[in-house]
Structure of Actin-like ATPase domain-containing protein:
Amino acid sequence: MSSRPVTTFEVGIQDSQDFPEDNGSEGKKNQKGSAHDKARRKNKGGAEVINGKGAKNGNSTDKRKQGQKKKATETSNFKEKSISIVVGVDFGTTYSGFASSVKTSSYDRVTKHRKWPSCSNAQEKVPTVVSYNTTDEGQKRLSSWGYAVKSSSEAYTWFKLGLSQTQRKHRLDDQLLSEEISEIKCPDGRSYKSVAIDYLQKLYAYILSAIEDELGEATFSQVAFHFVLATPAGWPDFDRQNIKNCAKAAGFGARESDKISMVSEPEAAAICVFHTYSTKLGSECPLKPESNVMIVDMGGGTVDLITYTVKNLKPFEVEEACVGSGAKCGSTSINRQFLKFMESRFGDQFKNKPQKDIGLKSKLMNGFEDIKRMFTEDADSQRVPFPLEWDNADQYDTDNQEIILTNEELRSMFDPMVKNIFELIQGQVEEAKKETNTPITTIILCGGLAESKYIRFKIKAFCNEYLKTAQVMIPESPWSAICVGATMSGLDPNKVIKSRRARRAYGTVVHRKFEEGLYEERDVFDCPKLGKRVGNVMHWHIKKGDRKLPNDRYKWLTRGFIDVGNDDNGEIEVFSSDLNDAPSRRYHPGVDKIGSLPIDLSEIIGNNSRKRKSEDIVSGFSRKRRIPIQIGQVILPQADSVEFVARTGNKKLGKATFNYAPIMIDGKAVADVDDDDAQPDVWLIPTRANPTSNDENRERSTEDERSGSEYSINDDSIFVPKALELSNIQSSPINLDTEDESESNENGEREIDDQEFREYEGLGEDEELEECEDPGE
């Protein structure tokens, strides 16, 4: 028996002042609001915040105490153990590492880990590589990882890149990667996901073992871990969450009292290098107030850039100057160019070699890795051992069985990626200039490629020509800057970085009053009561580039109501966009559905005492009830997520946290069967794979031409999308109509005091306002 389709509520906005031309997160403040124009925010204790101040309500102190008690209860599990240790984890495409520190320590006490299984020398990182053997039953089983993987075995690496399959292609992405992503090998019956989990399980077990050896068994039993996972900043929210999901499946954060969070790789690198320069160099620090500093993190699979404006030196504080940028063009791009060169020169003699001879852990590739690190602009020809039958003395040394690579040939392998880095730097310079009008004076190189002499030389030469006033700096241990900075972020994420920029827009679909010349005719429909309306309009609660403060609270979109029939549950769809100028229309290829905010009206509809607050409307088919609703949104940097809530009056109707959304078919989540153990687990994948999501947008944008309207009208104020009506879905718009003509901000948002709120809701002085959960820091 099929389940009944879910009711979808659509937001409505009444007049033009409620729908801004620039409706970013920084709305006008200190506006006087009416009872209908409510935007309530909570401080840490749950008390009302009016324009940044505590509530005027006499119960605010009690509510603050209640909020503190609630928060203490929620976090008590984490505090049960007497020692808290932060572990910063850099799960890289080619190498991985970790650093750690006791939670109460300062940044100076972060320890980099340098010992690894099967490695006699101290190394900052371990190879992100695994190998498998075959059981008697024919199943693949992990046999070794990291340094223990032998060059003679069939090794698997670069699988992290396979976790990012949803990212829109950037013109600076490595073209060979997009052509060959399917050729990144996985064992038979395994996926990128399952291989990543296998590797992370080994890394997780070793982290615990190493820290237990250091602390002793008795002390270790009292440790609660906070794992901070560094993820590529340029990847979509879902892909970054996919890495976190793999880490969770591998055990990270699974123990009682443990937890896991994320930080972007360039932000982690920035925290590390800023601390290093500000503390070790003191007054000689090359970073000056009101100057822009660009971090260029060049890893194995990605290059990420982010720019900060230095605001203060003591204490050292920065603000994100503009939205970061990046592309899939890292160290592995050079490897792919080398493999392409080998195939082109030696043809079948190379291509027909077994994987153990030409794979990413082979002696051939290990030899090339050494060349990559030491290669310079004026270096002589380089040689790589490799057995071949090749009769060309300029290309191959038959006596020593070595391939000869000239300086020009090697530069041809580096330069495509180097050119992409130049363009990324230029783009970030232009973005920072638009946002701050402040020149970039320092460029700091981090990541494994920052240790390449050739790349250092080329970037310095480029900056000397293009950015004549900018100095290029390479910090101590640029390779481990990410895991060290991730640990520092877990100790205090806001000690250095005081504000950030939203990397994408988040919003909901609305309908609003029609304005001539602004909208497509097919989105226009008539309402006898409200007049000419336009639907399928995106309302962006926050836009890409909007400034985010560490303690941002819910931002409320108010003055709304929904018309409800027999259904007491429904949802509001939530969307995102990575485009610099977020589209104004829902059916645009740059708009992605990320999920839905559930709406539970069962208590409201079933509560007779609240019927006076709802207006019964007689439609052609059923009686509908009008219920006021407010929608709140906040970005939570530490959780690396965006949160939406809905409420009516003092009753919360729903809450949802997004970075991703499960695939839904006919309203049911699709479970992905794990290749390894055949145990179903719902892996959250982009809703554009959903038949009703973004891929369909382009089709619907041409197919939804109206004959009159896309909406049917059941009475003079109830709008039901025709497509939904045919499926017996009672879909009702949220209408932000108001009789109050007082001034509002661009978003139609208000901050009101408790007295106004009580008057509007009809609450007595003795009736308590229900707490709306604070998102926390």
User: Anything to note?
Assistant: The first strand starts at residue 7 and ends at 8. Residues 407-436 form the longest helix (30 residues). The chain has four domains: 7-25+508-660+691-738, 84-265, 266-330+414-500, 331-411.
